[in-house]
Amino acid sequence: xxxxxxxxxLLRPRLRAPVPIPALSKTQNPLLPPxxxxxxxxxxxxxxxxxxxxxAEEAFEAAKGTKDLLSAFSRLEAVLxxxxxxxxxxxxxxxxxxEASGAADPSRVLSLALRSLGIxxxxxxxxxxxxxxxxxAMALHLAGSASFDLSRFHDALSFLSRSLRLLSxxxxxxxxxxxxxxxDDDAEGFDVRPVAHAVRLxxxxxxxxxxxxxxxxxxxxxCLDLKESILPPGSRELxxxxxxxxxxxxxxxxxxxxxxxxxxxxxLHESTLGKNSVEVAHDRRLLGVIYTGLEQxxxxxxxxxxxxxxxxxxxxxxxxxxxxxxxxxxxxxxxxKFDEAVTVLRNVSKQVEKDSEMRALVFISMAKALANQEKxxxxxxCLEIACDILEKKxxxxxxxxxxxxxxxxxxxxxxxxxxxxxxLLKRSLGMLERIPQAQHMEGNVAARIGWLLLLTGKVSExxxxxxxAVERMKDSFGPKHYGVGYVYNNxxxxxxxxxxxxSAAQMFALAKEVMDVSLGPHHSDTIEACQSLANAxxxxxxxxxxxxxxxxxxxxxxxxxxxxxxxxxxxxxLYEQIKIKALAFLSSENSAIALPEPQEKE
Length: 602
Prior knowledge:
Organism: Oryza meyeriana var. granulata
Protein name: MalT-like TPR region domain-containing protein
InterPro entries: TPR-like_helical_dom_sf, TPR_rpt
TPR repeats: 239-272, 402-435
Structural class: mainly alpha
Pfam family, one: TPR_12
């Protein structure tokens, strides 16, 4: 306390009487402002704005991690004008990094892409270069990818289509790409093919999500063409590209297109990685699926067993090997080796968890084997177990569960449980309608519901499902896909049951038109569609047209040779029947007292 008083007494006079500051003379310079570092040197000059911007740009380019990039971007953003092209490129780079690393919400990535787009699109066309076009295409690709992640598929399609239109003129010709020549007019020598590949691949994903499978396949084929022009002939990545496209074709049941692609992948992987590599095992497993689709079951089983052998030699275990074993069991069922298949499935069931999706698949395959042996009671018990497991997985994996329900419904058909089959298909359709990426399956399921309702005599209920299926399948697979032809044929049959032969004739004509293209005019199903068309014209009383199409049926079966002797005999009988009807109709027109003939039911 004494010390405080002493200090206060010493300070008091100073506070009351401040020290006077002497006035400056005219010749005396004012004092300089205080410096942070008391240096005798003059202060450094204030850097120009351009130098600050360049320094910030260099720092952004040098940044590596997400945190450093975000920090450097904030600094660059603060010193560049909002319309500066360098800011657009920085937005693009940051957006690409965030998308690749998954470090940000897709909406943040989309915001950066749109900001980049806004600046780049404002660049006058007179000053734009090829590099500007590529940057704009990359920004559009980023916007498309982010929109896809946000399930805004139509927006994504618009962005990506614009991107591809910008890149297409910059791509080298096929001859130039094959010889390794660069475009002369691209001053920077930038190869746009990898960018075009990324755009095409994302377009395929978007079109698949929209259910436009045929268009998606065209984009995937273009991706493969680009990879063939970029990668060296023996590249492992090229082999994977062949297999990916083969798998895409197999998904839409186009096994003929899938087979040569998968064989190319196998050949390439064997030559570069050896016959016992894991990649070769993957190729052989897919080959087994493709041969199964082509009903070449012996070859399918051979490929499947070779695939399993390689997997086991490499110590590959888990779901991948178990799936291959289930595939093998299904092939054995197709070959009629039911006991062998059941033995395999029992062994697999011991290796899986009680309530796993894999166990449900085992019981579905077990039911398939039992149904083929006409053991209806055991079949239904296996299907009930599978359904109990799958019901618990509906929220976690709706697409896989919906697909499994479709397979289970087909097995319920085999044991004549049609109501159960229809109920499961309706449940599957309801699930698929909530999954944007599953639109291609909706048409198939709706068509199957319609066909089963028609089969069980519920014709009026069947028609809306069949009409809906036609539109969905045309959107997904194109108007000339053979599946569309079958649905048209079933619609025609439904209209005939409803005594609407005119509508039926229109549907049968459309079915025949599609099948002529997709299956060929001499395919048995195409001939049956032509037969149905003749029957519809006969029911309408258009006997001239009925005879014309019935004559085509006769000629088509005759071209099949001795194997179609019974079909030819029946076709000739129907032709003669129509001919008699036609003659009776003509005679009735000339006779006022002619009695009407009884109508025959087809």
